[in-house]
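Practice problem: predict the structure.
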Amino acid sequence: MTSETESRVASAERVVRATPATIFELIADPAQQPRWDGNDNLASAATGQRVHAVGDTFDMTLTKDGAVRRNHIVEFEEGRLIAWLPSEIGSPPPGHLWRWELKPQADGTTLVRHTYDWTDLTHERRMNRARRTTSEALTASIERLAAIAEGASG
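Answer:
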């Protein structure tokens, strides 16, 4: 049971010493996502699924049970914003959203904000997992992403 005051949005951010283009490419190419997933939830994604627009989808294999999730792009601005709703193949998304926002800074760095929003999640069996996706868990993904992006920029 959830309380009405329970926050259903977790967010984390930090400045990364890399360009938005470098960082965005690591996010928009699903084959790269397991490299920086701080939740160790993503096992693999086939190459050739690079996202380009709202309405695109990509499939990701999970580490826990090898299940495949289809991710539906619902927000997209090249180099700046990408968000998706995951679902089981053949099922509608249950209502949790992953969002990445990139804001270029005057000094050539990028402010990276990662958000997990489960405001619209209604499936009871997914609630405990959603609650475990905290700002700290999101920070782990940003830290891994930063290490890769800063290495590519340096």
